[in-house]
Amino acid sequence: MTAALSAVSKPRPHAGLRVAVIGAGAFGGWTALHLARQGAAVTLVDAWGPGHPRASSGGETRVIRATYGTRRIYTTLANRALQLWREADAAWQTDLFRRTGAIWLFGADDSFGRASADGLAADGLPFEWLSPADAARRYPQFSYDGIQSVLFEPEAGFLHARRACAVVAEHAAADGVTLRTASVPSPVRADGPLKQLALADGTTLEADVYLFACGPWLGSLFPDIIGSRVTPTRQEVFYFGRPAGDTLFHGSHMPVWVDFGERLIYGIPDDRGFKLADDTPGPAFDPTNGSRELTRDGIEAARAFVARRFPALKDAPFLGGEVCQYEASPDSHFIVDQHPAASNVWFAGGGSGHGFKMGPAMGERLAGIVTGQADVPREWRLARFDAQPDGGWEEKWS
Questions:
Q1: Which of 54, 92, 258, 263 is deepest in the core (most CB within 10 A)?
Q2: Distance CA 105, CA 277 (A)
């Protein structure tokens, strides 16, 4: 059991501090766990429970990698998250992280990959550039038509998302966190330090500090402060069947992959099947009541892509899929800041589609931020929206 995530006796600098964390996803669950291990009395509230299917942290799997172009703050954060995911698996005897490596397939423009490689090198993370011919010898599952360079990140892989949320909550509870299934009515108003939070069941929650890490609902809970700066979009995920007895398209022989072309398509060698999704933001979406049925156009587009990039799967059966949502900010940086009128209220959001992998590192950072032990990076503060234009999509992807 590693020191960072073990339950050995440690100083508890925040003993007696009452913290309410709203949202039991990747950000909220890990923050609750870190705070509890520092002695805080934590209540973790979620409307449907950890890893539920409406959550941005729900679903089966998520990519974890540290390729971020020029946005090196996330390369460093992902590097720390990788360490903590490994420590969690060792301490808890789980397999939440699956190391498969990741390859990025580039056409004529590989500037994102070159900038990412610089960031990986600066953070001491390994990478390798492959020619299409070298990549084909190593990974013959792919067609490299139109590909001019390939970036391989060996420490990358994928995470079991829904299961991870439940496991983190379980260990948080073991460390004294109170778990509550309850919803918060919208909007939340505060004209000074928040003394108590009204819940939809008619009860109230009292705390010294409140952290709202409620994903796609953050904008509707705080329409005057967050509002459209967190806009949920509808995202479809597809699963196709591998051939019987196949291992070539399984995580034991295939990496996570990203096709970085006119549209950014990515995939995971998921145990459920051959998973792929289009990263392009979809239409605005209601995460509470929106339809989660797949569209025929989406299925056919996914099938056409599979046939082109993975010829051996051109007749693969369609197994099903999921409709999830992104809840990215306009520039895809995270949003972490204080309520302007309530110094004991904090926001943490704007994480899709790249926040899940960062969970343990963000929890560590957020625990320090809400207790006054760490500063908020300027890239995450709300003031940036008044000073910076939006970036291009290729810089925003996760």
A1: 258
A2: 15
